[in-house]
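Q: Okay, next protein. This is 2-amino-4-hydroxy-6-hydroxymethyldihydropteridine pyrophosphokinase from Salipiger mangrovisoli. I've checked the sequence twice, so it should be correct. Can you predict the 3D structure?
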Amino acid sequence: MAFGQEILIALGANLPSEEGTPHETLKAALTSLAREGFAIADVSDFYATPCFPAGFGPDYCNACARLTGPADPHEILAALHRVETQFGRARARRWGSRTLDLDLLAVGETVMPDEATQTLWREISAEQQRENTPERLILPHPRIQDRAFVLVPLCDIAADWRHPILGSTARELCDALPAEARAEVVRM
């Protein structure tokens, strides 16, 4: 397997799996990622965060991890989906409750499929986000700059990661969020 650039992922769960609580599931998922051929370089602390959007289910356990692994983002995403499936992930509803959610945040400085498409998906309204799902992989993840439940743990392991289009670091993106949004993300 050819190894590529730094891979950043977000992990989340708000339903128990066969492994136990959401916190236990995230720990077990990291072990499964290693079996998929990823090297785990760093893992953030684990955080309790309100369900997003509000009212869609129990609160989440969230974390981020820095990995190395395959160079091809599509291969990485396929591996993340295989691990989700191992833990009973069912894609029944967008933003629904789940036993495991693994989001590919970034692969090095890769922008996919191109800057215009990434920008289009990054700037769509919240209503459009609920109704539309990209048909292609978008990198960096188009919602990364909006989500405290991603940026707070990401700052534990990659505060200096720089968004290749926005030019801001993870720390700068996190600091730009409303204080009340950051305060909802509580270290476990």
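A: Here is a summary of the prediction. The domain at 7-187 is CATH 3.30.70.560 (Alpha-Beta Plaits). Residues 88 and 99 are 6 Å apart (CA to CA).
Q: Noted. On to the next one.
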